[in-house]
Amino acid sequence: MKVFREAGYYTNGYNVITLVVGKCDGDPVFFEVSLDPYADVSVYLTYSGCSQCNIPLHVEKDYDTPYASTYAWSNPSTIRVRNYGTVDFKTYCKVVMAGEVNYSDFTANAFRSCAMAIKNYGWMRIMRKKYPDLNYDVREDTNDQVYDPSKTRLSAADSAVDYIWPYMMLDSTFRLFPGFHVHDSSVHSHACKGGGVLSQMGSKSLAASGNSWEYILHYYYDYDGSFARTDRNEQMSRGAIKIIYINHSVTGTSGYLQHTPTQHKRKCSTCNCYHTSAHELVYNPNANNYQCSKCGYATVPLTKSQKRMEMY
What we know:
Elements: E1 3-4, E2 17-24, E3 27-35, E4 42-43, E5 78-81, E6 85-88, H1 89-100, H2 108-127, H3 155-164, E7 167-170, E8 181-182, E9 198-199, H4 200-208, H5 213-221, E10 242-245, E11 256-258, E12 264-267, E13 274-278, E14 281-284, E15 289-292, E16 298-299, E17 309-311
Parallel strand pairs: 8-9
Antiparallel strand pairs: 1-4, 2-3, 5-6, 7-10, 11-12, 12-13, 13-17, 14-15, 15-16
Helix pairs in contact: 1-2, 1-3, 2-3, 2-4, 2-5
Protein backbone atom coordinates (compact mmCIF):
# COMPACT_ATOMS: atom_id res chain seq x y z
CA MET A 1 0.00 0.00 0.00
CA LYS A 2 1.32 3.42 -0.90
CA VAL A 3 0.48 5.94 1.84
CA PHE A 4 1.07 9.68 1.61
CA ARG A 5 0.92 11.82 4.73
CA GLU A 6 1.97 15.07 6.33
CA ALA A 7 3.84 15.11 9.64
CA GLY A 8 0.95 16.96 11.27
CA TYR A 9 -1.32 13.97 10.84
CA TYR A 10 0.58 11.98 13.44
CA THR A 11 0.16 12.15 17.22
CA ASN A 12 2.46 10.97 19.98
CA GLY A 13 2.76 7.22 20.27
CA TYR A 14 1.76 4.62 17.70
CA ASN A 15 -0.76 5.14 14.92
CA VAL A 16 -2.46 1.87 14.05
CA ILE A 17 -4.29 0.72 10.94
CA THR A 18 -5.98 -2.69 10.79
CA LEU A 19 -6.69 -4.27 7.42
CA VAL A 20 -8.82 -7.31 6.56
CA VAL A 21 -7.80 -8.60 3.13
CA GLY A 22 -9.10 -11.28 0.81
CA LYS A 23 -9.67 -12.09 -2.84
CA CYS A 24 -12.53 -11.47 -5.25
CA ASP A 25 -12.33 -13.48 -8.50
CA GLY A 26 -8.65 -13.98 -7.81
CA ASP A 27 -7.92 -10.28 -7.30
CA PRO A 28 -6.73 -8.84 -3.94
CA VAL A 29 -9.27 -6.64 -2.16
CA PHE A 30 -9.66 -4.93 1.20
CA PHE A 31 -12.86 -5.96 2.98
CA GLU A 32 -12.50 -3.87 6.11
CA VAL A 33 -10.31 -1.05 7.37
CA SER A 34 -10.03 0.21 10.93
CA LEU A 35 -8.06 3.39 11.73
CA ASP A 36 -6.95 4.75 15.05
CA PRO A 37 -9.27 7.74 15.74
CA TYR A 38 -6.29 10.05 16.23
CA ALA A 39 -4.57 9.06 12.97
CA ASP A 40 -5.62 10.83 9.80
CA VAL A 41 -3.86 8.87 7.09
CA SER A 42 -4.21 10.07 3.49
CA VAL A 43 -4.44 7.33 0.84
CA TYR A 44 -5.52 7.26 -2.76
CA LEU A 45 -7.46 4.83 -4.92
CA THR A 46 -6.14 3.17 -8.02
CA TYR A 47 -7.69 -0.27 -7.63
CA SER A 48 -10.44 -1.65 -5.41
CA GLY A 49 -10.95 -5.19 -6.69
CA CYS A 50 -14.74 -5.23 -6.99
CA SER A 51 -17.63 -2.79 -6.92
CA GLN A 52 -18.81 -4.02 -3.51
CA CYS A 53 -15.45 -3.32 -1.88
CA ASN A 54 -14.95 0.31 -2.84
CA ILE A 55 -12.42 1.17 -0.14
CA PRO A 56 -10.04 4.06 -0.98
CA LEU A 57 -6.77 2.17 -0.83
CA HIS A 58 -4.06 1.47 -3.37
CA VAL A 59 -3.19 -2.20 -3.84
CA GLU A 60 0.19 -2.97 -5.35
CA LYS A 61 -0.44 -5.34 -8.26
CA ASP A 62 2.71 -7.39 -8.60
CA TYR A 63 1.32 -9.02 -11.73
CA ASP A 64 1.52 -5.66 -13.53
CA THR A 65 5.15 -5.00 -12.59
CA PRO A 66 7.21 -4.97 -15.83
CA TYR A 67 9.09 -8.21 -16.32
CA ALA A 68 12.82 -8.39 -17.08
CA SER A 69 14.60 -11.36 -18.64
CA THR A 70 18.34 -12.04 -18.82
CA TYR A 71 17.84 -14.58 -21.60
CA ALA A 72 16.85 -14.33 -25.24
CA TRP A 73 13.16 -13.51 -25.65
CA SER A 74 10.99 -15.96 -27.53
CA ASN A 75 7.23 -16.07 -28.05
CA PRO A 76 5.20 -18.16 -25.59
CA SER A 77 3.76 -21.31 -27.12
CA THR A 78 0.55 -21.57 -25.07
CA ILE A 79 -1.63 -19.67 -22.63
CA ARG A 80 -4.22 -20.95 -20.15
CA VAL A 81 -7.67 -19.38 -20.59
CA ARG A 82 -10.43 -19.71 -18.03
CA ASN A 83 -13.16 -22.14 -19.21
CA TYR A 84 -11.10 -23.05 -22.31
CA GLY A 85 -7.99 -24.69 -20.93
CA THR A 86 -4.57 -24.44 -22.58
CA VAL A 87 -4.67 -22.90 -26.06
CA ASP A 88 -2.07 -21.95 -28.66
CA PHE A 89 -0.84 -18.45 -27.85
CA LYS A 90 -0.94 -17.18 -31.43
CA THR A 91 -4.46 -18.52 -31.86
CA TYR A 92 -5.39 -16.84 -28.58
CA CYS A 93 -4.22 -13.47 -29.92
CA LYS A 94 -6.22 -13.91 -33.14
CA VAL A 95 -9.38 -14.86 -31.24
CA VAL A 96 -8.93 -11.86 -28.92
CA MET A 97 -8.56 -9.62 -31.98
CA ALA A 98 -12.02 -10.80 -33.06
CA GLY A 99 -13.39 -10.08 -29.60
CA GLU A 100 -11.74 -6.69 -29.14
CA VAL A 101 -11.21 -5.02 -32.54
CA ASN A 102 -13.35 -6.85 -35.08
CA TYR A 103 -13.86 -3.74 -37.23
CA SER A 104 -13.86 -4.02 -41.02
CA ASP A 105 -12.91 -0.34 -41.42
CA PHE A 106 -9.59 -0.69 -39.57
CA THR A 107 -6.49 -0.30 -41.72
CA ALA A 108 -3.50 -2.65 -41.47
CA ASN A 109 -1.54 -0.34 -39.16
CA ALA A 110 -4.50 0.07 -36.79
CA PHE A 111 -4.87 -3.71 -36.58
CA ARG A 112 -1.13 -4.18 -36.07
CA SER A 113 -0.88 -1.73 -33.18
CA CYS A 114 -3.84 -3.38 -31.44
CA ALA A 115 -2.42 -6.85 -32.12
CA MET A 116 0.86 -5.83 -30.50
CA ALA A 117 -0.97 -4.56 -27.41
CA ILE A 118 -3.02 -7.76 -27.19
CA LYS A 119 0.06 -9.93 -27.53
CA ASN A 120 2.00 -8.01 -24.86
CA TYR A 121 -0.92 -8.19 -22.43
CA GLY A 122 -1.32 -11.94 -22.82
CA TRP A 123 2.44 -12.47 -22.59
CA MET A 124 2.61 -10.54 -19.31
CA ARG A 125 -0.19 -12.64 -17.81
CA ILE A 126 1.87 -15.74 -18.61
CA MET A 127 5.05 -14.36 -17.05
CA ARG A 128 3.48 -12.77 -13.96
CA LYS A 129 0.51 -14.61 -12.53
CA LYS A 130 -2.59 -12.54 -11.92
CA TYR A 131 -4.41 -15.64 -10.66
CA PRO A 132 -1.65 -17.62 -8.92
CA ASP A 133 -4.05 -19.89 -7.03
CA LEU A 134 -6.12 -20.80 -10.08
CA ASN A 135 -5.46 -22.92 -13.12
CA TYR A 136 -5.57 -20.19 -15.74
CA ASP A 137 -3.46 -17.20 -16.82
CA VAL A 138 -6.27 -15.02 -18.17
CA ARG A 139 -10.02 -14.79 -17.97
CA GLU A 140 -12.04 -14.79 -21.16
CA ASP A 141 -13.96 -11.61 -20.34
CA THR A 142 -13.20 -7.89 -19.97
CA ASN A 143 -11.35 -8.48 -16.71
CA ASP A 144 -8.52 -9.41 -19.07
CA GLN A 145 -9.20 -9.69 -22.81
CA VAL A 146 -12.34 -10.95 -24.55
CA TYR A 147 -11.74 -14.50 -25.81
CA ASP A 148 -14.71 -15.97 -27.68
CA PRO A 149 -13.84 -18.57 -30.38
CA SER A 150 -17.40 -18.37 -31.74
CA LYS A 151 -16.76 -14.87 -33.11
CA THR A 152 -15.95 -14.60 -36.82
CA ARG A 153 -12.33 -13.63 -37.38
CA LEU A 154 -11.39 -11.06 -40.02
CA SER A 155 -8.57 -12.09 -42.35
CA ALA A 156 -7.04 -8.60 -42.04
CA ALA A 157 -6.95 -8.93 -38.25
CA ASP A 158 -5.41 -12.41 -38.47
CA SER A 159 -2.80 -11.05 -40.89
CA ALA A 160 -1.93 -8.29 -38.43
CA VAL A 161 -1.15 -10.89 -35.75
CA ASP A 162 1.02 -12.80 -38.24
CA TYR A 163 2.82 -9.58 -39.16
CA ILE A 164 3.70 -8.52 -35.61
CA TRP A 165 4.46 -12.02 -34.36
CA PRO A 166 8.26 -11.58 -34.59
CA TYR A 167 7.99 -8.40 -32.45
CA MET A 168 7.45 -7.52 -28.81
CA MET A 169 7.34 -4.32 -26.74
CA LEU A 170 9.60 -3.51 -23.80
CA ASP A 171 9.79 -0.37 -21.72
CA SER A 172 12.80 1.93 -21.82
CA THR A 173 14.76 -0.41 -19.54
CA PHE A 174 13.97 -3.51 -21.63
CA ARG A 175 11.19 -4.93 -19.44
CA LEU A 176 8.02 -6.54 -20.73
CA PHE A 177 4.91 -4.56 -19.74
CA PRO A 178 1.14 -5.10 -20.03
CA GLY A 179 -0.26 -3.70 -23.26
CA PHE A 180 -3.31 -2.16 -21.67
CA HIS A 181 -5.89 -1.17 -24.28
CA VAL A 182 -9.50 0.03 -24.23
CA HIS A 183 -12.10 1.02 -26.80
CA ASP A 184 -11.48 4.77 -26.40
CA SER A 185 -10.66 7.50 -23.89
CA SER A 186 -14.23 7.49 -22.53
CA VAL A 187 -13.46 4.08 -21.01
CA HIS A 188 -10.19 5.17 -19.42
CA SER A 189 -8.81 8.71 -19.26
CA HIS A 190 -5.25 7.48 -19.77
CA ALA A 191 -6.06 6.25 -23.29
CA CYS A 192 -4.26 9.31 -24.58
CA LYS A 193 -0.80 10.32 -25.75
CA GLY A 194 1.72 9.08 -23.20
CA GLY A 195 -1.00 7.74 -20.93
CA GLY A 196 0.02 4.09 -21.00
CA VAL A 197 -3.29 2.80 -22.36
CA LEU A 198 -3.85 2.26 -26.08
CA SER A 199 -7.13 3.55 -27.49
CA GLN A 200 -8.45 1.21 -30.17
CA MET A 201 -10.46 3.98 -31.82
CA GLY A 202 -7.52 6.32 -31.46
CA SER A 203 -5.36 3.76 -33.26
CA LYS A 204 -7.87 3.74 -36.08
CA SER A 205 -7.69 7.54 -36.42
CA LEU A 206 -3.89 7.69 -36.21
CA ALA A 207 -3.52 4.96 -38.81
CA ALA A 208 -6.04 6.64 -41.11
CA SER A 209 -3.85 9.76 -40.94
CA GLY A 210 -0.94 7.77 -42.35
CA ASN A 211 0.91 6.87 -39.15
CA SER A 212 2.71 3.55 -38.81
CA TRP A 213 1.80 0.93 -36.21
CA GLU A 214 5.12 1.60 -34.47
CA TYR A 215 4.28 5.31 -34.22
CA ILE A 216 0.89 4.48 -32.71
CA LEU A 217 2.47 2.30 -30.02
CA HIS A 218 5.04 4.98 -29.18
CA TYR A 219 2.23 7.56 -29.10
CA TYR A 220 0.38 5.75 -26.31
CA TYR A 221 3.11 3.94 -24.38
CA ASP A 222 6.14 6.28 -24.37
CA TYR A 223 6.31 7.79 -20.88
CA ASP A 224 7.80 11.20 -20.17
CA GLY A 225 6.38 11.53 -16.66
CA SER A 226 4.32 14.62 -17.50
CA PHE A 227 1.38 13.23 -15.50
CA ALA A 228 0.93 10.35 -13.08
CA ARG A 229 -0.05 6.95 -14.38
CA THR A 230 -2.14 5.74 -11.47
CA ASP A 231 -3.40 2.28 -12.37
CA ARG A 232 -2.11 1.38 -15.84
CA ASN A 233 1.59 0.81 -16.51
CA GLU A 234 2.43 3.02 -13.52
CA GLN A 235 5.66 1.11 -12.90
CA MET A 236 7.04 1.49 -16.42
CA SER A 237 10.38 3.27 -16.65
CA ARG A 238 10.28 6.74 -18.16
CA GLY A 239 11.40 7.06 -21.75
CA ALA A 240 10.56 5.55 -25.13
CA ILE A 241 9.43 1.95 -25.38
CA LYS A 242 11.53 -0.55 -27.35
CA ILE A 243 9.91 -2.40 -30.22
CA ILE A 244 12.00 -5.54 -30.38
CA TYR A 245 12.37 -7.80 -33.41
CA ILE A 246 12.96 -11.25 -31.93
CA ASN A 247 13.21 -13.30 -35.11
CA HIS A 248 16.02 -11.92 -37.24
CA SER A 249 17.99 -14.23 -39.52
CA VAL A 250 21.66 -13.69 -40.36
CA THR A 251 24.24 -15.87 -42.08
CA GLY A 252 27.66 -16.29 -40.48
CA THR A 253 29.46 -13.45 -38.71
CA SER A 254 29.88 -11.14 -41.67
CA GLY A 255 26.56 -9.51 -40.88
CA TYR A 256 27.93 -8.06 -37.63
CA LEU A 257 29.69 -4.73 -37.31
CA GLN A 258 31.67 -3.68 -34.22
CA HIS A 259 29.70 -0.86 -32.60
CA THR A 260 30.58 -0.49 -28.90
CA PRO A 261 31.97 -2.87 -26.27
CA THR A 262 28.43 -3.91 -25.34
CA GLN A 263 26.51 -3.49 -28.58
CA HIS A 264 26.90 -4.52 -32.19
CA LYS A 265 25.03 -3.73 -35.36
CA ARG A 266 24.11 -6.61 -37.57
CA LYS A 267 22.57 -6.79 -41.01
CA CYS A 268 19.37 -8.78 -41.12
CA SER A 269 18.95 -11.09 -44.10
CA THR A 270 15.20 -10.89 -43.59
CA CYS A 271 14.79 -7.12 -44.04
CA ASN A 272 18.34 -6.19 -45.17
CA CYS A 273 18.73 -3.43 -42.60
CA TYR A 274 20.98 -2.97 -39.58
CA HIS A 275 19.76 -3.37 -36.03
CA THR A 276 21.47 -2.70 -32.73
CA SER A 277 21.93 -5.92 -30.81
CA ALA A 278 22.51 -6.36 -27.08
CA HIS A 279 23.92 -9.68 -28.10
CA GLU A 280 24.48 -12.99 -26.40
CA LEU A 281 27.61 -12.90 -24.25
CA VAL A 282 29.56 -16.02 -23.34
CA TYR A 283 32.08 -16.02 -20.51
CA ASN A 284 35.66 -16.93 -21.49
CA PRO A 285 37.47 -18.08 -18.32
CA ASN A 286 40.87 -18.13 -20.06
CA ALA A 287 40.68 -14.44 -20.92
CA ASN A 288 38.51 -13.56 -17.90
CA ASN A 289 36.04 -11.70 -20.08
CA TYR A 290 32.94 -12.20 -22.15
CA GLN A 291 32.82 -12.66 -25.90
CA CYS A 292 30.05 -12.19 -28.40
CA SER A 293 28.85 -15.64 -29.39
CA LYS A 294 28.30 -14.43 -32.96
CA CYS A 295 31.42 -12.47 -33.90
CA GLY A 296 33.83 -13.15 -31.03
CA TYR A 297 34.30 -9.48 -30.09
CA ALA A 298 35.37 -9.36 -26.43
CA THR A 299 33.66 -7.28 -23.79
CA VAL A 300 33.48 -7.24 -19.98
CA PRO A 301 29.92 -6.80 -18.67
CA LEU A 302 29.26 -6.40 -14.97
CA THR A 303 27.56 -9.74 -14.40
CA LYS A 304 27.97 -13.27 -15.66
CA SER A 305 24.75 -13.56 -17.65
CA GLN A 306 23.68 -14.16 -21.19
CA LYS A 307 21.68 -11.45 -22.91
CA ARG A 308 20.45 -11.05 -26.44
CA MET A 309 17.84 -8.88 -28.14
CA GLU A 310 17.50 -6.74 -31.22
CA MET A 311 15.85 -3.34 -31.15
CA TYR A 312 15.02 -0.30 -33.23
